[in-house]
Amino acid sequence: MGARAPESDESRHDGHGDSSRHEEPIPACDGKPRGSHQSQDGDGCLGNGEDDDESDGDDGEVSPALADVGATQKKRRKRNKKKSKKKSKANAPAEQSWPPRIPVDQLFPAGNYPKGEVQEYKATARTTAAELRYNSRQKYWEDETFLSNYRKAAEIHRQTRRWVRETATPGQSLHDIAAGIEDSVRALLDNAGLEPGDGLKSGMGFPTGLCLNHQVAHYTPNPGQKPVVLQQQDVLTVDFGVHINGWILDSAFTMAFDPTYDNLLAAVRDATNTGVRTAGVDVRISDVSAAIQEVMESYEVEIRGKTYRVKPIRNLSGHNIKQNRIHGGKSIPFVKTRDQTKMEEGEVFAIETFGSTGRGYIVDDVGVYGYGLNHDAPLNVPVSMASAKRLHKTIRENFGTIVFCRRYLERLGVEKYLAGMNCLIQNGVVEEYEPLMDIKGSYSAQFEHTFLLRETHKEIFSRGDDY
């Protein structure tokens, strides 16, 4: 229970207290009754209240000296009251009294109370697999360096493909087009990638894909192949990637010189954009696939008097991207499935769609597209062939798990590597990738974008004014 606060000393100042306050009785002077001095004149004799010529002439008046003293005391009292009010407001208690009596609101006027101890949960059944994946991703996806590198790679891709779209014409060889793309990317990165370790910092995300007509994906001109020359009636798909610190910007487009194929290109471009729009945090991949299929199959294309329904390739898919891994483990088919897997915040995806006038189903073509070191391959490979060991060392130093092709090896001056490569493939250290095709006589197209899923939005890194 609160105790009554003590009275102020000001109430006990003689002659200056409130008129309503209790005053001490003034004792009688020289045995005279109280108040009798008021009837005395200046010499102490009792008077009759009338004027006396011999009096001092100051009956009932206060002497100037006493008046000055009283005024000074009043001013001091007012100043003291003002100071005490200011001190009570400005000097809020910084520490608690003992025993504690000061309200805590006065100790923490801004409401910033101390935070309690925080202990992280251990990985128990309450921590879901999705939460564990999220915690591992959030280390990079909000990092400004990560975002800046992806945006830089996207700008390099935009500038390079702008050059390709303006300069690629019938009569050029696919080898020259590929070389021009790769020279441009390396120049814009300011990294030739010829010294050990340089290719791990930045470079091509995978071998440049240049596919014609029924070739759907994964064709690149390699040494020893017959030169392929671009023709007026060809449909050309260009698929290349740019990586910085292992994070790959993957984007593709299709171009044709004959307007006959415009509706084929429009169907696939629309399907890709639909997939990008539908994608989001907690969105089921099956819903994205269904949206892609619905849009693509709504298009038809007439080629030389025959009408074809544009079909999505059933056994190809888009994918998520992880550092140094172009295919991160999640797939986005172009036809509806029952897969209930969800997209998650912080994931990087490459939404790509392939449409065809053929069967809508791909098979392996002849030849080799490229190679990739398995991400779980041991550092010391279990092979006895010396050339295989040397080649393995070269791959690790220049590509890591980034996919590469024969042109890239020969550019580094590597010779007589086929036997060693076959040895690494047979032992599961390196994976080989073949070109992919639909039936001959058909035409296919591809469009692709790379984007990052963030909490409130997605950023489509590869978006440009062209597609």
TrEMBL record:
Broad EC category: hydrolase
Binding site for a divalent metal cation 1: 239, 250, 448
CDD domains, sorted: MetAP2
Gene Ontology BP annotations: proteolysis
InterPro entries: Creatinase/aminopeptidase-like, Met_Aminopeptidase_Type2, Pept_M24, Pept_M24_MAP, Pept_M24A_MAP2, WH-like_DNA-bd_sf, WH_DNA-bd_sf
Binding site for a divalent metal cation 2: 250, 319, 352, 448
Region (Disordered): 1-103
Biased composition regions of type Basic and acidic residues, renumbered to the chain: 1-25
Keyword terms: Aminopeptidase, Cytoplasm, Hydrolase, Metal-binding, Protease
Function: Cotranslationally removes the N-terminal methionine from nascent proteins. The N-terminal methionine is often cleaved when the second residue in the primary sequence is small and uncharged (Met-Ala-, Cys, Gly, Pro, Ser, Thr, or Val).
Name of the molecule in the record: Methionine aminopeptidase 2
Native organism: Corynascus novoguineensis
Phylogenetic classification of the source organism: Eukaryota, Fungi, Dikarya, Ascomycota, Pezizomycotina
